[in-house]
Amino acid sequence: MESSLTWTDFYQKYFDAEKCLAEYFRSESEFASDSVVQPMSRISNFFASGSLKGNILIFYGAVYNLNLLHPACDHFKEIVVMDVLENNLQYVKKWKNNVAQSFNWKHCFGNVQKSEEREPWTEIEKKLKESITRIEKVDYDESGREVLKIFPQADCVLSPYHLTLLCKDHDSFISSVKNMYSLLNVGGHLIISVFIQCTYLYLETLKFPVLCIEEDFVRKVLGEEGFVIKEAVMNPRSCHTTFSVMDYASILFLLAQKIEKMQ
After folding, report:
1. Which residues lie below 8 Å from residue 116, measured CB to CB, with a gap of 6+?
2. pLDDT confidence of residue 210
3. How do strand 184-196 and strand 76-83 relate by DSSP bridges?
4. In this predicted structure, what is the pLDDT of residue 206?
5. Contacts of 12 (CB under 8 A, 6+ apart)
6. What is the DSSP string of 119-177?
7. Hey, which end of the chain has fewer CB within 10 Å, N or C?
8. Is 253 helix (H, G, I), strand (E, B) or coil?
9. pTM of the prediction?
10. What pLDDT band is residue 1 in, cutting at 50, 70 and 90?
């Protein structure tokens, strides 16, 4: 990472959503199981319980993971997309407005189709685009922490990988969890996925830092910040041949619920 740039500035300047999709999400990628198949299965299972529903779902951080939003379409009236990276937001805007993209989502959305549900993937994608009503930028303050504008309270926040990709240390991780708590109605749900024991990822020749954390830390922070964990699934890394590209050991998926914090 360039010594003159902060962690946040480096991501802002160099992270490219389309390059990330091409490297980690295409069907031929060795990471396809970890980046597409397993996450979509886990998120879909969380929604399958029927308890996740309401008016607004906020998709928070790392918003190029659009495939993870599909299960939410049938459970929430509208989806608000929020990210700190302008590049990610521009990617979503172009995708939503049908601007030609180099990445084809067909195989990703195809993974959510059950044998008895043969809805064309283009219809699934269209429904998702129609569900997204707002695309909003989240800013940073001078300390590098996220600053939220005034947003309507949500019934669910879905945040894939944001807490390990864009949080530079434990303090910023805790600050982000506080932010997500503030976005939720009491009783609302938080869904997160985080890399465990990961320190970097590569996009072409650029090496991006990743916050290295353990499951115990994630559980501790959520509990202290007003969440009750309802379900947790740890997926061990299935791709074992490209540790030079990204060095995570596993991916943790958590479903938690906001409660009133004790005063």
Report:
1. none
2. 94
3. unpaired
4. 93
5. 84, 85, 86, 87
6. --HHHHHHHHHHHEEEEEE-EE-TTS-EE------EEEEEEESHHHHS--SHHHHHHHH
7. C
8. strand
9. 0.91
10. low
